[in-house]
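Fold these two proteins, one after the other.
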Amino acid sequence: MNKSDLIVAMAEVGEISKAAAERILDCFLSKVTESLLRDESVTLSGFGTFSVTSRAGRKGRNPLTGESIDIPAKRVPKFKPGRELKNTISSSGAAASGSITSGTITGGAASGTITK
């Protein structure tokens, strides 16, 4: 599923326009990004936590030339899935079939039940 597919699914489940779904998704992504830039984590209970971690600089090797190179330290985004998400994925046949057949979204304009 890509961003366009997600927007269509949000619009259908939330019974809102695609434009409204796109604004909601863009706002969500923007706020998560802003929080991560401030070194704040974003936790969605049951779903998971977005955070930033630092990777130390290290020595590497160019695979083509074998030359030793310095890889600089950097900050990278990280996602840690929550217990409910892990349990849902591990206990469902979603991995084998590639889809979730039902679920519930609660709260706000996106409230509803997903059934396929």
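Now the second one:
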Amino acid sequence: MNPIVDDIENVLNLIVQQFKQYRFKPAYSYTGVKTTTQSMNDQYDAMS
């Protein structure tokens, strides 16, 4: 598997766990997802 794909899968799994943990705080979880996705994009841009 592509290492970047593995990283994305790991991040998505973490996000899913955060959603389960913070289901009662959807605004917080949504912000966390946006921030994580943005940082992943930044890392990907830096590598390419």
